[in-house]
């Protein structure tokens, strides 16, 4: 009875429609990038960039952070003149249009310098990433206009932006591993070509489905903005709006548009931002700081510095280098392994966030203990990529299972570590979250550039063809 009473109390002072609209709005933040990312196992075999396609995408996503910077500058120099709701509407429209165009033109190529490149795909990936990265400093501040309970719904929706595309992609499948088949020819010389069995439905169909979800997110934002029942749930008309200034000061500082890194540090962190966000924020909103939390001992300079270095290294690997080399690590074991590693890894991210709710380790010794097996798994992943196309246990089911499990473990453990560090900085107060966000961006950028350079300007990583 106590459980049902508690549930009734939680639902009594909220409007379910606003919860649903907030969640759908949040889902649109990273939906386009997450959806496109799940299609890489199908795209790498047709794109002229081949297995190196992810390295281009990772760099473009990092470059798209310029959107948040531009918005922050506009807020500083055009105070009161920049309508955030108009800005959001423009971004959401760009996201919808980009997905729709991508569904038709993702396979088109353009010759540059004598080489073919997937210019339409890469250009549209950049515009989608622009929406995702800018959402980190724009969407959450907009949601702060509503009662704080609805920000939790928004964050849950943002977590779904990784989960929903992954589930859809798993249903889609990849058809199987590439094979070599004979091509009919008029001469006596036998010719062969690589053939990839088709999935349950095409990349175009998948992108159209994601477009429909993105459009639904756009419509949800419009309804949040215009419906009278939604307007009544805003802070200015709510009796429960921001009663605790101290509790919300940290939230306000993390949302300041003048420092885009602050907002992004809590909302994307990711490997394309997928789902690592909402638990950090929702944890703060769902439970008021206890006296123990308020009196948490300040970190000394050594601990502070070590945490920042760990965050930079984790971001460099998880957001930059490893997404770029994932194809070289997984594809020697088969396209199915790559498909499972990407999609199950995406699900591991929000799962790690849920675990942080119940099992929270924020001390340096505890996080270091978690970091050790993470490093072991990371070394194995890097070895499989550098040894491509003949990594350990290749052409065995045990090797395929091992590489998938390794990627899922790596994604989950790194997500937990990054969120645990964010929680520690949150409790510590001061400018910790600013430097957390800054080191996230620095590490991610270094990892992305390093991965791109290694893949495209050295012979360290090698692909193969069944023919």
Shape: globular
Beta percentage is under 5%
Quickly count the helices.
20
Distance between the termini: 65 Å
Task: Report the strand count.
Answer: 4
Largest sheet composition: 2 strands, antiparallel
- Radius of gyration using CA atoms only: 23 Å
Question: What's the helix-strand series?
Answer: HHHHHHHEEHHEEHHHHHHHHHHH
Q: Please give the CATH architecture.
A: Up-down Bundle
Q: What CATH first level would be assigned? A: Mainly Alpha
Overall domain count: 1
- Structural class, judged by helices and strands? mainly alpha
Organism: Frankliniella occidentalis
Protein name: Riboflavin transporter
Membrane topology: Multi-pass membrane protein
GO molecular function: riboflavin transmembrane transporter activity
Question: Which features does this protein show?
Answer:
two-stranded antiparallel sheet, Growth Hormone, Chain: A, 467 residues, 20 helices, globular, mainly alpha
Overview of the structural elements:
It is a single chain. With 467 residues, the chain is mainly alpha-helical. Helix content is 69%, strand content 3%. The strands form two sheets. It has a two-stranded antiparallel sheet with strand order 1-2. Strand 3 (179-183) and strand 4 (191-195) form a beta hairpin. Helix 3 (31-37) runs antiparallel to helix 8 and helix 7 packs antiparallel against helix 10. Residues 236-248 have a biased composition (Low complexity). Plasma membrane transporter mediating the uptake by cells of the water soluble vitamin B2/riboflavin that plays a key role in biochemical oxidation-reduction reactions of the carbohydrate, lipid, and amino acid metabolism.
